[in-house]
Amino acid sequence: MYLIVDGFSETETLAILFLSETACARDAVGHGLTDFKVIDGQAYLLYHEEGLFHENSDNALNGYSGHVLLKWNPAENKMEQVLPDGFLELIVDANSFCADEKGNLYIFYYGDFEEESGKFCLKYQMQTKQGEFYPVSEYYDASFYQNNHLFAWDGKGIAKFNEHLERLDYSLIDTEGYTGVSAAYHEMVFMKRDSCHVYRQLA
């Protein structure tokens, strides 16, 4: 089990914990965490700007790693870079991410592609380390993948995309009284103070 914990122990930053029947490990998450998923038993952490803060990282970045997407290896208790350097140069501000069953990551971000700046989704194949870029019209702050479709939240509603990021449908959501939204693996959870509403695409 993985947990993100605020103000853990003697630190004042976020921490990630790994708990099992035989092991326990923790590491500092740092600043700027915007999304977190466990994929095939591995913890992936998405950062919205500079990346994980660490005192021993590149001084030119004032202590920030600049890696945007990291994978935590609890056995060695270290963060590992996921995206090749060429992709990192394009991503200025990552918003959310999710994964399908074929080893593709979908990362919504603001930044550059070729000679254009704007809002994009990077479809990144983890096995081949190849990526495809698709322009999108909005910032999507939460996303999940289910039944061969990608779903993303823009603050007002949920857009439905196919694997080529063509928008197929859009559902407005009445968020009055809700305090936040979080994307799980196959659903979106809208939270209230004492209850929640779960949005999922039925098979």
List keywords for this structure.
18 strands, mainly beta, 4-stranded antiparallel β-sheet, 2% helix, globular, 203 residues
Short description:
By secondary structure, the protein is mainly β.
How would you explain this protein's 3D organization?
- It contains one helix and 18 strands.
- With 203 residues, the chain is mostly beta strands.
- The strands form five sheets. Strands 4-5-6-7 form a four-stranded antiparallel β-sheet, with no helix packed on it. A four-stranded antiparallel β-sheet has the order 8-9-10-11, with no helix packed on it. A four-stranded antiparallel β-sheet has the order 12-13-14-15, with no helix packed on it.
- It is globular.
Share of helical residues = under 10%
Q: What distance lies between the first and last C-alpha atoms, to the nearest angstrom? A: 27 Å
The biggest beta sheet reads:
4 strands, antiparallel
Sequence stretches where pLDDT stays below 50 over 5 or more residues? 55-64
Number of strands: 18
Over all CA atoms, what is the radius of gyration? 17 Å
The spatial strand order of the largest sheet comes to 4-5-6-7
From N to C, what is the helix and strand string? Answer: EEEEEEEHEEEEEEEEEEE
